[in-house]
Each structure stands twice: as C-alpha cells, then as structure tokens.
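Re: 3-hydroxybutanoyl-coenzyme A structure - here you go.
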Amino acid sequence: MKIEKVGVVGCGLMGHGIVQVAAQGGCTVVALETEQAYLDTGLGRIEKSIAKLASKGVEKGKMSEEEAKAWAATVQGRITGTTNRADLADCDLVVEAIVEDLGAKKELFTALGEICKAETIFASNTSSFPVAEMAEASGRPERFVGLHFFNPVQLMRLVEVVRTDKTDEDVYAEARAFGEACGKTPVSCKDTPGFVVNRLLVPYMVQAINMFDRGDASAADIDAAMQLGCGHPMGPLTLTDYVGLDTTLSILEGWCERYPDEPAFGIPESLRTKVAEGKLGRKTGEGYYTWDGDKRS
Ligand code: 3HC
C-alpha cells in the first residue's frame, strides 16, 4: 500500500509542519483540530511557510517566479482542514501531534481505531511516551509506529521512526518511505524514552538550565559557548525557549514518574517556576529570554 492520503491530528507547533511536509511530499492531507480557531491559526502558518519556501526557491535560482507560484498552489491545494474526526476515516496514515498527554493520546487512538479503515496506519509524534501503550489503545498495535519530527518541521531534516515489538515489517517500511517522501532522513529507533534525539538533548538542556540557575554563567554566555565552541545552530537555553518550557517540563515529568532513579531526568526548579508563571518560551514572549515574535529581543 502506498501512503496517499494522510490525516494529521493537531495543527499546532509540530502538527502544522507535518501537514505541510506531507503535502510537499505529494500526499493529500486532512488537518484535524478541536476548534476552528486553532485550525485557522495552523493553516495560516502553513500558508506563510509555503510562501517563504517558494520565495527562497526563486531567490536561490531553483525555480522561476511562475514555477514557485504553481508549486505553492499545488501544495496548498492538497491540504484541507476539519474539526470532525470522521473525516479521517479513509486515510492511509494518521499522524497524531496533539498535546504531550498520554491519556489524551490513548483516548484519541481508541476513537480512531473505531473510525478509520482497517488498513490505516497510525503514528504518534510523541517526543517521550512509550509508543507501545498508544499502539495497544488503538486496537491495531501491528499497524502502529512512532514518527517523531523536529521543530521547525519544515527545516529539520530528521524523522525518527519508532517500532514496537508488534509493529509489522511492512508498516514500518511504509512509515520510513513516508518520512523520505516528506523530505526527511529516517533513523530507526526502538521504543525507548526519548528515542535517540531527546534522550541526549533533554538532559543536555537540563544541565544548561542548572548551570544558569547556579549562576555559573549568563544565559547568553552559555548559549554562545555551545554555538561557537561546538558549532550548534542554537545554544541550549535558546533551544529550550524554542521547544517550549511546558513541553520540556512535561517530557521530564513523564520520565521522572517512569524512571525515578535516573539522575539525568532531574527537573530544574526554574523550569517549574517559569512554567507556573506562564513563561513558556518563544510562544508566550518569555522564557529564559524575552522574544519579539520569532526573534529574541
Ligand atoms: N518555514 C519556512 N521557512 C522558515 C521556517 C518555516 N517554518 N522557519 C524559519 N524559516 C526561514 C527563516 O525565515 C529564515 O529565512 P531568511 O534566511 O530568508 O531570513 C531561514 O529559514 C533561517 O531561519 P533563521 O534566520 O531564523 O535562523 P537560522 O539560520 O538559525 O535557522 C533553525 C533556524 C533551522 C531553526 C536553526 O537555528 C536550527 O537548526 N536550530 C536548532 C533547532 C533544533 O535543534 N530543533 C530540534 C528541537 S528538539 C525537537 O523538536 C524535539 C521535540 O520533541 C522536543
């Protein structure tokens, strides 16, 4: 089975990007949100990003103005939005990108298991929860994978493809092929906490926050050190703001509950405090830095 029609549940930070790269990869995509206002925001971001990529293509001499216009219209034309779960019934693949809450994800997959055709493959973009638990909830664990994209989805070139003990070989191969069609390089991961990237990245971010909290160095110096000393495109504190402090905290809370003896998953006090204060990073205008829209101010 070739994946042609894709449903994406959640059109937020990650979901809107997944909708877009799937459409760029040639799939027909249905974006599902709980409310029309969220859908409109997500679809608006997609429109802006497609326009940006089209104008970049012209700038770099990859396409003429005409070709860029046609490309943008074609990609845009493959995307529709809905607030009705039933509209995902005939999708070949449904990718979940909702809030990082295992209960909500399981409830969603149980419902989708009833709604979608028997062949539909299910995927979760979870960054930290066990894929196997959602797979069981869906009632079709053999047709379930993790497809973990990175923020910003349009630009980051990786997708982690996570298999559980029950994932069918064919389903796994189709999920990898879908990741490639989206323009990503797939890497294979077992169903372990954080897979590859977050298992390394989140403890690193925690260490940077601890360093800042102890006053060992300023936020700007910690970030400059990792950018200039290690060639990272962003320093760890900018990256925490970029990912979202709430997302980072919820990943850590989930891990602390499951793996209380793992010291690498300790939660920095300032992360809890800032989240409680609504300082969630770039999206709220303040985290470890203040932000003016998409840029640090
Ligand atoms: N769509 C289209 N274009 C976009 C875009 C988008 N969504 N986002 C940015 N761009 C464009 C910008 O407008 C800019 O265009 P310009 O050159 O014409 O001005 C261009 O891309 C470059 O962006 P920036 O100027 O903002 O700066 P950078 O050169 O630093 O690139 C970056 C941005 C690619 C985000 C780079 O800083 C980077 O790679 N940062 C690290 C990100 C990272 O580590 N992500 C993983 C997070 S972990 C994760 O997602 C896992 C989760 O589970 C927690």
